[in-house]
Design goal:
Helix content is 34%, strand content 19%. It is α/β, with parallel strands linked by helices and 247 residues long. It has one domain (6-140, 178-243): Vaccinia Virus protein VP39 (Rossmann fold, 3-Layer(aba) Sandwich). Strands 1, 2, 3, 4, 5, 6, 7 and 8 form an 8-stranded mixed β-sheet that branches. Helix 5 packs antiparallel against helix 6 (154-161). The longest helix is centred in the N-terminal third of the chain and has 13 residues, at 63-75. The protein is globular, with a radius of gyration of 18 Å.
């Protein structure tokens, strides 16, 4: 049975509290939704949403992550409401059923690594029902600059200011970082109407896992800072809820 009382779910970690706070009015409105989680991996968001009674499809390139997703969903009693589909986020239309539409799409930390973020967002807009919403979270350039500087890497921090790969010698593909204006422009260019942007993990990632801060107090601080400048401006990530216009 779905969880009818959202309070019965575990409290989200402080670093993603701002995302869950934005999703909460959508996910707990009482209407079962068709949800697509692009790059949703092992189900950090998909499984709790399925526990609330929503039908969730996860598209992810990793077979191992999808196997973990199904185990987590089954353990949580939500296995029948979670579907895993192996595929790349920027080619999701090749693996999703033709004509399938969604009330809510999650695209969290995917735009950094796809070949073409604009194309990915256009595909998402195409599978959203009119009036449906996209939850997108992406790495924040200002936050990355601050993290590299605080970590003792001033050369890398300066490189990030202009969008350069901060450490090309380490190998692996360079990840994109976005400014709020860049992310909002991408969403608008895809035909979506973005709401206010929030900062995700304003202080939690800077503190690190070894902090002795009270978890509830840290979560409350993150929620207080998420919509408040200048603090949100240096968060690890940016989050936006955007809507596909109804007409």
């Amino acid at each position: 049975m779905p969880v009818t009382d959202p309070a019965a779910l575990a409290q989200p970690p402080a670093r993603t509290a701002a995302i869950w706070a934005a999703l909460d009015p959508v996910a707990t409105a009482g209407t079962p939704l068709q949800v697509l989680d692009v790059g949703g991996g092992s189900g950090m968001f998909a499984v709790p949403l399925a526990q609330l009674g929503h039908q969730v499809t996860v598209v992810d390139p990793s077979a191992d992550a999808l196997a973990t997703l199904h185990r987590r969903a089954a353990t949580a009693g939500a296995g029948e409401r979670v579907r895993g589909v192996q595929g790349d986020g920027d080619r999701m239309l090749t693996v999703l059923p033709d004509g399938e539409r969604y009330d809510l799409v999650l695209c969290h930390f995917v735009l950094e690594v796809v070949d073409d973020p604009a194309s990915t967002l256009q595909q998402i807009a195409g599978v959203l029902r009119p009036g449906g919403q996209l939850s997108t979270a992406s790495a924040n350039r200002a936050g990355a600059v601050l993290a590299r500087a605080v970590g003792g890497h001033p050369v890398e921090a300066r490189a990030l200011l202009t969008g350069q790969d901060p450490a090309p010698a380490r190998g692996g593909p360079a990840r994109r970082r976005f400014s709020p204006d860049e992310l909002l422009a991408l969403l608008t260019g895809a035909g979506l109407q973005p709401g206010e942007w929030r900062g995700v993990s304003v202080v939690t990632d800077l503190l690190g896992a070894s902090t002795g801060a009270d978890a509830d107090a840290l979560r409350a601080l993150e929620l207080a800072l998420a919509s408040t400048s200048p603090y949100r401006d240096v968060a690890t990530a940016l989050h936006v809820l955007a809507t596909r216009p109804a007409a």
